[in-house]
Sequence to fold (666 residues):
Amino acid sequence: MLSASDTSQAPVEPKAPHSFDLGAIDKTVDPCVDFYQYACGNWRKDNPIPADQSRWGRFNELSERNRYLLYVDLKKAADAPKTPLQRKYGDFFAACMDTGLADKLGDKPVQPLLARIDAIKDKKDIAAVVAYLGSRTPTSIFFGFGVEQDQKDSTKQIEGIRQGGLTLPDRDYYLQDDPHMLAIRAKYHDYIAAVLKLTGESEDQAKADADHVLEIETALAKGATPRRDLRDPERRYHIMTLAELDGLEPNFEWSVYFAGIDAPKVEDLNVGQPGFFKAENQALADQSLDALKAYLKFHTLNGVAPWLSQPFQDASFDFFQKTLQGQAEQTARWKRCTAVTDRALGEAVGQDWVKENFPPQAKQNMEQLVAALKTALGQDIQSLPWMSDDTKKQAEQKLADFRQKIGYPDKWRDYSKFEVTRTNFVEDLDHSAAFQFDYELNKVGKPVDEKEWGMTPPTVNAYYDPPMNDINFPAGILQPPFYDFSKDPAVNFGGIGVVIGHEMTHGFDDEGSKYDGQGNVKPWWTDTDRAAFQKRLDCEIDEYGGFQPVPGVHIDGKLTLGENTADNGGIRIAWQALLATLAQQGKSVDDKIDGYTEAQRYFIGFAQVWCENRTEQVSRVAAKTDPHSPGMFRANGTVRNFDEFGKAFGCHVGQPMMPENACRVW
Ligand SMILES: [Zn+2]
Fold:
């Protein structure tokens, strides 16, 4: 049984990961030929993908540990809460863990919604139902709605709608006709029919409805802008009045929709991709009311299927995890419930988590590191031979305008309006969606909250936000293998140092470089410099586009351009910051520890952050959807462009890790 492991996977505390793992190194490999395999070979051999995962890397080791520590807090709060906030997240978690109740209820929790869809008598009434589902439940339907900073005036918060409404990972899954995609679409068709049958539809009806769902989503996919093109802010920004939107998509009752979500009256809004809404308009005309109702029903069910009774869970797992990602077994319930509680109440449970897991000293050390990296990036900008003084001045201004957030919010989010019951988890998910929706909607017309976080404290990640022009490092990533102050500076600069440099470089990648220091899309380059910059970007597009994670499957050089640029800039400026730090301490990159020079330890520490194994399915999905290159190419693609690597390992020009035509943007 696919989910039999739900009960057998009892929580066990994972070992804390450590940085710079000598045992991970495969010394049979020449570092100048395949550095990733050299730094990670033994780790990859010793760490096969666990049955409940579809990829397994150093990132996962740390996030699994953070998740376990979060689980401990949730379990305590569920069993014996000490504060009202603990009662709230404890109840949410306990409701999630109650599989007996979920099995007993079957599809009952969604029946009122399905009845509401059944009752639609006219296409004109669809907008009201879409408004309800989109604002009060976790259903994603037809398009996305959100509140965003105005790209041309980042002090303003405006309403925006954007392309959406698909279930498969990318538009290509609907539009490409190779055997791999055809097989996935067939399985998807089976999944849609299986879910609808579980609500009592006949086999024939469910199959016919699955046809409709696929037809509608395919029509939407055709109208959608390819993911790689969305990196251009202009492809996400089209301010329109409501009258213009009505003209673009007259078949959807927009005024009913905006009244339904209780939106404040506004003159205009951002219609991210007008072409998409045109396609949607056509789909609303072409499809019968019954077909559209099937689409609404399926999306309503799909949004909560992982939390309904076992047959729904199994169907959802079988398609999304097993078929799409190659995962062998269902993830343990306690892990899934911990993750969903973190998503819903992250700044509630995070308050206790950081007290236990994030010492104040870590924040201070991090501030020093960020300052060192900022200095290094400033010097890097100064040293660029291809950039004019005018553009350099602008770039430095943008760097000076950077803000940073480290660890967790100064002010925690107020969850008092979020109602939680211990006895109906689907209702809790609805309340969570509604709470989040209202929270966003409330921002319209208000000043931007510079202190707001886009990630929860235990998250193992970091981000740069172009309209905010800020870099953000949650507490969860400030630990080994990224950050360990018992280790020498080389290892830490190779880990968290490169992460900081990576986020800073995002401010100057293909996308970030279009925003100024105030977070507005505004050209600040001379034309000549922009052309020179583009030439350098093109070099990376070609280089990474040549990498194949699975034979015949190429990385999308344009989709991954920003992340690749950030990796390449990050390793260079963290290196400069390391040199400055070692000089201050009277040390050099040639000093040896455990048989490796500081220079070598820097690069090994860097590459080992990316040690990982992936299923072939994950590699295929990621090639279509993930703006990050796989670990192998994040390591090798980066070091081969940086001659200090070749010097550190005694490589010679012409070897794979020291090519003649290396790329350099920053
Ligand atoms: Zn990034």
About this structure: The pocket of zinc ion is lined by residues 502, 506, 563, 566 (CB under 6 Å). Residues 142 and 609 are 38 Å apart (CA to CA). Confidence is low (pLDDT under 50) at residues 1-7.
